[in-house]
Design goal:
It is a multi-pass membrane protein. The chain is an alpha+beta fold. 54% of the residues lie in helices and 18% in strands. It folds into two domains: 4-52 and 276-411, no CATH class; 60-270, no CATH class.
């Protein structure tokens, strides 16, 4: 039931103590403001990291080789280890049930890409058809390399949308055009975009069999790339991925006579990086929660202290109320109502300011691993409601003390 007299009392008390009420409200508002902003940036970090990993499949395993650093089985260190077609064929056969996508890769060195009188220098990679899924590439025109291209060693090429805009800006249908690689014509069969953005579009792709045949690749392979079958949860997928990574490293070291503790055979497991980054962001989010909650607690303690001061100042008034028959709970509610009002107004003010800041500034932030910091509105409102409850509890203790004061002592209070 709305009590006009009670609210007039509250506003009269606030009017008499403007500065004190303002400073108390600032402490509460700053607490919710800091918490929401920190949580927003925590979410922004998660968004940024998720965006970074969208460039490639998150369960990808990438294999490459270097030079041996240790003597092994009578072989001197300093041997370059070279992956070959049979390594790829044997591994894909051995793990055919575990693999989702697979591709080998051959890098074509020292060649330019020409179209009529235009020439550009981008990476030229020979790959297998599954490389599209491994790199999260999306075909927007035409098709990707297929197994028929591999078998026939077809002179076909897939270009990025970025390269199309640079080399063929006025060509409506690039699928009828040819590019030259070292003077050899390759027909454009597809145009792709990459989820990782333009920086991932600095490459063109041709069948690996064609690349090895035309560009003196023999049966050499630069890298192997795999993704594993999906698992029921992340932890299991991570465990399976780790086991697979270790097994293929051991297999290749054994085949190429590399010492078990030599890093001449390397494998990069993207899932381990995903785990590391998300663990980091989770820890940062917990830290943000801790800082924000501590700030809110400081504000709530400030409210409690102010309520104690108010009770002390109004002790004589409370004594008169009790002498006239006021019930203890009416006095408790009188004090708590002021506490709830100050906490609620300040809390929502901090919420509105923080949400407005994230809404205006968030989309314009250009920082690595931070993307569109934001906070779920319902969660933010829930935090404010919890803050109001905390404010009510902060006012309860002084209110309980006021309700239990003896009328005679209260009336004699100076």
């Amino acid at each position: 039931m709305f009590d006009l007299d009670r609210w007039q009392e509250i506003f009269e008390t606030i009017r008499k103590n403007k500065l004190r009420t303002f400073l108390t409200g600032i402490s509460v508002a700053s607490g919710i403001f800091i918490l929401v902003v920190l949580l927003g940036f925590g979410q922004g970090m998660q968004n940024g990291i998720q965006k970074e990993f969208e460039a490639d499949a998150t369960n990808r395993v990438w294999v490459w080789t270097e030079v041996t650093t240790k003597e092994y089985k009578g072989l001197n260190p300093g041997r370059p280890i070279q992956l070959r077609n049979e390594d790829y064929d044997n591994l894909t056969t051995l793990y055919k049930n575990e693999l989702e996508y697979k591709s080998d890769l051959f890098r074509v060195r020292g060649t330019s890409i020409n179209y009529k009188n235009e020439s550009v220098s981008y990476g030229v990679h020979g790959v297998s058809p599954n490389y599209q899924q491994i790199e999260n590439q999306k075909i927007i025109l035409g098709r990707y390399i297929n197994y028929s291209d591999l078998k026939s060693k077809g002179k076909v090429i897939v270009i990025s949308n970025k390269i199309k805009q640079e080399l063929l800006p006025n060509v409506e249908n690039p699928l009828s055009e040819y590019l030259q690689l070292s003077g050899i014509n390759f027909k454009i069969v597809g145009v792709y975009i990459d989820e990782g953005g333009e920086r991932e579009e600095n490459r063109v792709f041709i069948p690996i069999s064609t690349a090895q045949s035309i560009f003196n690749g023999s049966n050499r392979v630069a890298n192997l790339a795999f993704t594993l079958q999906p698992e029921e949860n992340f932890e299991k997928a991570l465990a399976v991925s780790k086991q697979f990574t270790e097994e293929i490293k051991q297999y290749l070291k054994q085949v190429h006579s590399v010492a078990p503790d030599d890093n001449a055979v390397n494998a990069f497991n993207v899932m381990e990086e995903v785990k590391r980054y998300y663990t980091l962001t989770s820890n940062i989010a917990l830290f943000f929660w801790f800082v924000g909650i501590c700030t809110i607690i400081a504000g709530v303690v400030g409210v409690s202290n102010i309520m104690l001061i108010i009770v002390k100042e109004r002790t004589r008034e409370i004594g008169i109320r009790k002498a006239l028959g006021a019930k203890p709970w009416s006095i408790i509610w009188m004090i708590m109502q002021e506490s709830i009002f100050v906490t609620g107004v300040a809390g929502f003010a901090g919420l509105i300011l923080s949400m407005a800041l994230l809404e205006v500034v968030g989309p314009n932030i250009e920082v690595d691993y931070v993307l569109n910091p934001s906070v779920n509105f319902s969660m933010a409102v829930t935090m404010v409601i919890l803050l109001i409850v905390a404010g009510a509890l902060a006012g309860f203790i002084p209110a309980w003390k006021a309700a239990n004061v003896h009328p005679i002592k209260a009336l004699s209070h100076e």
